[in-house]
Design a protein that fits this description.
- There is one protein chain.
- By secondary structure, the protein is of the alpha/beta class.
- It has two domains: about 150 residues, Rossmann fold; about 100 residues, Rossmann fold, CATH 3.40.50.2020.
- Helices cover about 30% and strands about 25% of the residues.
- It contains seven helices and 13 strands.
- The longest helix has 24 residues.
- One of its GO terms (molecular function) is magnesium ion binding.
- InterPro entries: PRTase-like, PRTase_dom, Rib-P_diPkinase.
- It comes from Octactis speculum.
Length: about 290
């Protein structure tokens, strides 16, 4: 329809240019934001690295994560003494909920920060550990994805919602469990993988199950790579990994998934690809949990 209107194509080109310039302006304004960083012990080295790499954007304040003799928290957050440089500032908190003890300690710091007259709070929680427990199958079970979301949603307000950044959340619907004072901001690690594909001549992407394929396949469409999808099928009394779609023969393949616990399914997937003629198999997983002795 626009092609029938005089000057429509020129108008469309103009709007496209304006939108591109506006996006560039927006990105520049975002990169000028400066954050005061508070980090849990697990991310202290990352915080130091961020400050060294981008001193104009990040300033890290070391926090003392101590305990009283009775085991309760004795925490002193950095940036408050000898002068308070936290009030009125944008604050980024680097979080890691790898066990219940540290999780509770960090929630206490989040409450304290939000009651310190800060301008905004960004919580970076790369791995959401309860993402696989978003439902129950019988009465009495606790859906911990819901309880974590309740705790986040009821944090104090500093005037604007707290932004919770999570990478490759296992069940995407978890973002809608958050409400009130917290908004989920979902990111993916796939952009970190893309340069590796060309460097190592990867010509095929494999997924260990249909869920992973639906989750990630569209992120590789622009590369024109072959795709293989695996899945578990029943072989007598056992369930084995088999190829459900695609041909791995002669391909240099990388298996992509968001989460690995023991690595058993990933290993079986790789062995099946090799058995079916793949020339080389590697794997990329956003979150390697490997609990206990896995």
């Amino acid at each position: 329809m626009n092609s029938m209107v005089p000057g429509a194509e020129r108008t469309d080109e103009y709007r496209a240019l304006i939108n591109k310039l506006e996006y560039a302006r927006h990105r520049e304004s975002q990169t000028r934001k400066r954050y005061q960083i508070i980090a849990c012990p697990a991310w202290e080295e990352l915080a130091i690295g961020m400050e060294r790499a981008y001193p104009e954007r990040f300033h890290y304040h070391k926090t003392s994560w101590g305990k009283f003799p009775d085991g309760t928290d004795n925490i002193e957050v950095g940036g408050y003494t000898p002068h308070n440089v936290i009030a009125g500032e944008r604050v980024m908190f680097l979080a890691s909920f790898h066990n219940n003890d540290v999780t509770l300690s960090q929630f206490q710091v989040l409450v304290m920060l939000l009651q310190s007259f800060i301008e905004e709070l960004v919580v970076v929680l790369p791995f959401y550990p309860v993402g696989t427990m978003e439902r129950t199958v019988k009465e009495g079970q606790v859906a911990t994805a819901n309880t974590y979301a309740q705790m986040f949603s009821n944090l104090p307000s500093c005037g604007r919602p707290t932004r919770l950044i999570i990478y490759d959340l296992h069940t995407l619907q978890n973002r809608f469990y958050l409400h009130g004072n917290v908004i989920g901001s979902l990111k993916t690690t796939i952009p970190l993988l893309l340069p590796y594909l060309e460097k190592h001549n990867i010509n095929c992407i494999a997924f260990p199950d249909d869920g992973a394929a639906k989750r990630f396949a569209h992120m590789f469409e622009h590369l024109g790579l072959d795709v293989v999808t695996c899945g578990k099928t029943r072989d007598g009394d056992a369930r084995v990994v088999a190829i459900q779609d695609g041909d791995p023969e002669g391909k240099n393949i990388i298996i992509v998934d968001d989460l690995v616990q023991t690595g058993g399914t990933l290993y079986e997937c790789g062995m099946e690809l090799l058995a079916r003629g793949a020339s080389e198999v590697s794997a990329f997983v956003a979150h390697g949990v490997f609990p206990q002795d896995a």
